[in-house]
Amino acid sequence: MASGRIIFLNGTSSSGKSSVARVLLDILDDGIFFHLAVDSFNAMRTKRELGSAELDTALRQTRMGFHRSIAAMAEVGNDLVVDHVLSEPWRLLDCLTVLRPQDVLFVGVRCSLGEVVRREQARGDRPAGLAAHQYELVHSHGDYDLECDTSKTSARECAQQIKEFLPNRPTPTAFTRLHGRYLPDIGETYAEVPTKKWAPGEADEAED
Fold first, then answer.
1. Positive/negative CA dihedral, 73, 203, 45, 119
2. CA pseudo-torsion sign 138, 142, 147, 150
3. Rounded distance, CA 169 to CA 70, Å?
4. Which of 33, 78, 136, 168 could form a disulfide with 4 if both were Cys (CB 3.0 to 4.6 A apart)?
5. Is it the case that residue 187 has pLDDT exceeding 80?
6. CA 166/CA 32 separation, integer angstroms
7. Contact partners, residue 200, CB within 8 Å, separation at least 6
8. DSSP symbols for the chain
């Protein structure tokens, strides 16, 4: 059984990843794609109030489970659009560990800082300053197969660009290059890479 393709969208909160993902599901016509978003996994969690340490543990375990759910869905042949925020180094390293690098089209979803701040304020459902905090972190690895900018082009135009690029994925892929760059040095200790907290007692839970 052939493994599924993974279109992996990475960008800050309010950068437009979810909008691009929704359009992709409408226009991709050479397979059956599923949209997997980290926020959807966060929303499944129990609603009782958690203390800071308990919440940090729950969020880390949620993200690790999210990564493995992506791998499991793709392993049995499902094509996926993944919506994530790689704002901590260990998240990328964990994805590099559990996903087949050759199956991933890694897309950087960029947006100007002023525009993500404007969107964050307009939405009103994110901690103030979250997008600005994530802005330099999410793209710090510096390697993608494709990038789009939602402050310059619409979600539909970005999705169309990704659709046209998908059949021509490069060899090696960005995930393959990043796997070779990071994992030989980190070995099996990737899960111990320190996390960067958003603010004392306030993790960046809502991330789309």
1. negative
2. positive
3. 19
4. 78
5. no
6. 14
7. 52
8. -PPPPEEEEE--TTSSHHHHHHHHHHH--SS-EEEEEHHHHHHTS--S---HHHHHHHHHHHHHHHHHHHHHHHHTT-EEEEEE---SHHHHHHHHHHS-GGGEEEEEEE--HHHHHHHHHHH--S-TTHHHHHTTTTTTT---SEEEETTTS-HHHHHHHHHHHGGG--SS-HHHHHHHHHHHHHTT-GGGSPPPPSBTTB------
* Tokens encoding 29: 């016509």
Which structure tokens are listed for 38? Answer: 């980290």
> What whole-number percentage of the chain has pLDDT above 90?
79
Instruction: Tokens for 143, please give them.
Output: 């390697």
Measured in degrees and rounded to the nearest 5, phi and psi for residue 96 equal: -65, -30
8 Å CB contact between 18 and 208: yes
> 72 is written with which tokens?
């499991």
165 CB-side CA count, 13 A:
22
Q: What is the pLDDT of residues 149-181, one digit of tens each?
A: 999 999 999 999 999 999 998 999 999 999 999
* Rg of the chain taking only CA atoms, in angstroms: 16
Mean confidence (pLDDT) of the chain:
89
Q: Which residue has the tokens 């960046």?
A: 204
